[in-house]
Design brief:
Layout (H helix, E strand, L loop, with lengths): L3 H5 L3 E2 L4 E2 L1 E6 L5 E7 L7 H18 L1
Antiparallel strand pairs: 1-2, 3-4
Length: about 60
């Protein structure tokens, strides 16, 4: 299994040798803008992810 990203974001569940359920938003420059990680029972909120994507996009527009 390829663990480069898993180790980079420190989300490896070593007991099971898999990543924790995770979501990361990285901008075009490669900067981590937002992230969350949790166990398998964690529910991801799609509206929150969309809100962050909109925020990152608006920041990018404001910088240009």
């Amino acid at each position: 299994m390829h663990h480069t990203a898993i180790r980079a974001y420190d989300v490896l569940d070593e007991d099971r040798n898999v990543a924790y359920r995770s979501t990361f938003i990285v901008d075009r420059e490669g900067t981590l803008r937002w992230g969350q990680a949790g166990d398998r029972d964690m529910v991801r909120e799609g509206t929150e992810i969309l809100r962050i994507l909109d925020l990152v996009a608006s920041l990018r527009r404001g910088a240009s």
